[in-house]
Amino acid sequence: MSSFNTAQHALWLDPVQSLAAPEHAQLALAGLSVHRLHTLEDIQKQLTDADWLVVRLDGSLERLQAVMALQVQANLPVPVICRVDRQHFSLAVQAMRMGAHHVIAADEWTVPAWQAALHKPEQKNQTAAPAAHPPAPQRSVVYVDPVSRHLLALAQRVAKAQVTALIEGPTGAGKEVLARVLHESSNRARGPFVGLNCAALPEQLIDDMLFGHEKGAFTGAHKEFKGLFEQAQGGTLFLDEIGEMPMHLQAKLLRVLQERQLTRLGAERPVSVDVRVVAATNKDLRQAIVTREFREDLYFRISTFKLRVPALRDRPGDILPLVAQLLARHAKEESFTVSAQAQSMLLSYSWPGNVRELENVVQRAVVLCTDAQIDAIHLMFDDAQYYGSPPKPDLLVAPEAPAVESGFAQNANSVYETPAAPFTSKPHDKTALVCEDEFRALFQGPPSPGTVGHLQTAVKSNEHQLIMAAIQGTESRIEAARQLGISPRTLRYKLAKLKGNELPSMALAR
Fold first, then answer.
1. How far apart are CA 72 and CA 76, in angstroms?
2. Which of 283, 350, 310 is closest to 143 using CA atoms?
């Protein structure tokens, strides 16, 4: 990442620490000219001449709130960089949610880190030219693992090109999320995003849904209907599970993609369409070509650029940030804490159902948890035989983040939520979880294996988990007892004891 040609002026508010000469030199190399202040009144006087505000947060958000209020009062939206101590993870996240442009560790002085923090779409006091496309996507996405970061950076480059894209990946891995990233990162972002699951509708209905019909074209056609191609005019048409599309519709789709024109059923004149097509599949289309289930010419038409979304087990760095996002979505009114043992179980599970299964597990935990403290006992996996095991060593070490192009760093608008053990989810209106390399150093990373505890306590905890898993995975208590190798009477006795220990009522009611 190259340095800036001209120095940018920053108002520096840090009552805790003074700036030494080496630190001044590093900031100058990063392209920042610093003017140190001591009070909020000093900021108010010099706000008009500032390109940046750099604010030290020392345990609370009061200083940031005061700075934001000053900007509103003066109607001068100067971007704010917050310097936060590394142990204050939750403070960094909240600062980004309040509107901070960037968060950087209070003891971070490397030039690349500060250059990344200083990136913004346009400089203050410049006349903005009409944007070729809107800013980066604002939707809630999680691309934290190095594999995911590479995929996101590649997708954002593909989005700028006028090419069709084919997204491959297993069911539930997040193909539609990536399709929306392609749309929202392109110059079509102001246009509509229209989606169709080709496996969810009957053959005749897909034809009508895609291409539309004229009034009177068939019995029941009381008015004209614009198909999804026309509805997506100027935007993106997402065709999910395209491998399930009938062969005769594949030929019709190929013609539309080649000629950029379609003819509604019952119409005499063709209609021009300006639509970008993004297709997705969980099938091997090359094998489908061999078995004559998919047209080879259509395959090459839709796969100008192929992107593959890996299974969740192949991007473990996304798991805990996804949990934080899902807790914020499904428990908006309450702040949940996830214990270190629960995090270890989440990391060590294989996730055959990918992100969809993870969402199910999080929702079950929210229901089962009675005190906003999610522990291992509240995690009910779809695989009833899974009772948790220590996570693999490679899952507990965050890999080095690969370098990505500067445009990716500019597009990120929030912070990688890597929870410490335990971590707490906060209720909020909207979260955008897009990874930034510079934030990784702020956080403590995934949990380490738990320390050895009392043997009786460990045995009792494991017994609780076994009983809950057996009840969850069977139709009756008799079957659960048989699976556990005990009598139904013994199971009733143990359930009574667990009830006295406040086992979640959902398990006891079965």
1. 7
2. 310
According to DSSP, residue 127 is labeled P
- For 268, phi and psi rounded to 5 degrees? -105, -30
- The pairing of beta strand 193-197 with beta strand 236-240: parallel
Task: Tell me the whole-structure pTM to 2 decimals.
Answer: 0.55
Which is it for strands 165-168 and 8-13: parallel, antiparallel or unpaired? Answer: unpaired
- Helix (H, G, I), strand (E, B), or coil: what is residue 241? coil
Q: How far apart are CA 460 and CA 422, in angstroms?
A: 22
* The domain boundary residue, chosen from 425, 451, 477: 451
φ and ψ at 476, to 5 degrees? -150, 165
Tell the residue number behind the tokens 């979640």, with chain if given.
Answer: 504
The whole-angstrom separation of Cα 229 and Cα 264 is 10
Question: Token digits for 149?
Answer: 């970061």
Same domain, 270 and 233: yes
- The conformation of residue 225, written as its DSSP 8-state character, comes to B
Q: What are the pLDDT digits (tens) for 424-447?
A: 565 543 334 444 433 343 333 444
Helix (H) / strand (E) element for 274: namely none
Give the list of residues 6+ apart from residue 170 with CB closer than 8 angstroms, or none: 282, 309, 311, 354
User: Under the phi-then-psi rule, with left for phi > 0, alpha for psi from -120 to 50, and beta for the rest, what region is 260?
Assistant: left
**Separation between Cα atoms, residue 14 and residue 23, nearest integer Å:** 14
The CATH number covering residue 22 comes to 3.40.50.2300
**H helix or E strand, kind and range, residue 38:** none
- Please provide the distance, in angstroms rounded to a whole number, between the alpha carbons at the two ends of the chain: 59
Q: Using CA atoms, how far apart are residues 193 and 235, in angstroms rounded to an integer? A: 6
pLDDT tens digits, one per residue of 167-181? 999 999 999 999 999
